[in-house]
Amino acid sequence: MSDTPSLEFASQSEIDAFCDALWLEDGLSPNSLAAYRSDLQRYALWLQQQGRPPLAQADTADLTAFLASVAPQMKSSSQARYLSSLRRFYRRLLAQGRRQSDPTLQTAMPVKASRLPKVMSEAQVEALLAAPEVETPLGQRDRAMLETLYATGLRVSELVNLKLHEISFDMGVARVFGKGSKERLVPLGEVALDWLQTYLGDGRQTLLAGRQSDFCFITARGTAMTRQMFWTLVKKYALIAGMDPARLSPHVLRHAFATHLLNHGADLRVVQLLLGHADISTTQIYTHVARERLKELHAVHHPRG
Q1: Which residues are paired to 176 by β-bridges?
Q2: Contact predicate 42/50, CB 8 Å
Q3: Which residues are catalytic?
């Protein structure tokens, strides 16, 4: 029997109705819906345990007390996400005429530290891409995945969910469905296309062994690659390439894609479109990384550096 206290029916029903509306009206992904549900359930359960009003009736004082209670164990970015989830929930109640005020409006959003992404040099990327043994079917798959990731800057979930029919070799692009199921076309580049053709024409057929799959990247059992499996592979190839696996993840290759494009003169808005960022301010952090790298190079190579 579980020791985890259960949430009162009224609050759980409010959360279910809210998440259903997000799915129907905004088409949010299962991961996004799960995050909203988790945030709301944690707050509702805290209110219940503290003997405070239920979720739909809670006020600013309740919310402030909750954030103060979780602050010691939670990063400011996580607190900001909680507040954002609750703000959306209460705005829906306001729109329905079920509340007179939004308790989140007088609650300050925690300040998030602006962390610069970890960046690989172009030489490090080349070493990582060369790590798989391309004489084997799995090595061909892994090389194709790494090349595709670096060529496109895809999120790892976008990479592992890529279907065969979403790749056009004639046009040299992949059709990708990102956050909120938003579609974008991403150029693949000649090198990634070459490795994809090698893998699809050779290694993938061996891995399938007569089985069928719509997914481009598959496992030795013929099933779809998962985010966790690819994460493990990246760590493995980091070791082979002589890099610290703790500092390398699929997302670091996405960072490298963006920063290297900017280093070579790409327009920021083009990079924004390629990454699938809704807001250009999300992309602008890469300009800071590029500038920092330029300053480092200047310090090393300029006679007055």
Answers
A1: 184
A2: no
A3: 155, 179, 251, 254, 277, 286
Asked if CATH classification 1.10.260 holds for the domain at 9-95, the reply, yes or no, is no
Q: What is the pLDDT along the chain (305 residues), one digit of tens a residue?
A: 344 568 888 889 999 999 998 888 777 778 888 999 999 999 999 999 999 999 999 998 888 888 888 877 777 777 778 888 999 999 999 989 999 988 888 776 555 544 544 678 888 889 999 999 999 999 999 999 999 998 888 888 899 999 999 999 998 888 888 776 677 888 888 999 999 999 999 999 999 999 999 999 999 999 999 989 999 999 999 889 888 888 888 878 888 888 887 777 776 676 666 776 555 555 455 555 555 554 554 465 445 44
Q: Which two tokens stand for residue 232?
A: 């493990």
Distance CA 26, CA 154 (A): 22
Could you give the dihedral angle defined by the CA atoms of residues 156, 267, 147 and 230, in that order, rounded to the nearest 10 degrees?
-10
Could you say which of 3.30.1490.20, 3.90.1640.10, 1.10.443.10, 2.60.40.1120 is the CATH number of the domain covering 122-301? 1.10.443.10
Q: Where in the chain is the domain with CATH 1.10.150?
A: 9-95
CATH 1.10.443.10 location in the chain: 122-301
